[in-house]
Amino acid sequence: MDPFKRRKKKHTLFQAASSQRELLRLLINVVLCLAGLVFGFVYLVNGLVIGWLFVAVFTFFLFVQFSNPTDYDI
What is the rounded end-to-end Cα distance, in angstroms, of the chain? Predict the structure, then answer.
């Protein structure tokens, strides 16, 4: 028996279930990014500098959610 031989998958997901899972993942990530942006703006309104960090980081994460995955291929 070859220890490096690839095993066959016993169970494969349907494409529809996979796309629903990806859509749910995208929705959750977008909601979390928007919540982070809200916290950043709240900190900015209160005059705290860390609000800029929250806004920058969660804006970047929001852009990454809608970018094409092939943009990052090397």
Answer: 35
The closest of 35, 43, 42 to 59, measured between CA atoms, is 35
**How many Å apart are CA 38 and CA 33, to the nearest integer?**
9
Average pLDDT by stretches of 10, the chain with 74 residues: 63 63 91 94 93 93 82 62
Among candidate residues 55, 25, 52, 20, the one with its CA nearest the CA of residue 37: 55
Please report, as a single letter, which amino acid is at residue 39.
Answer: F
Q: Please state the pTM of the whole predicted model.
A: 0.66
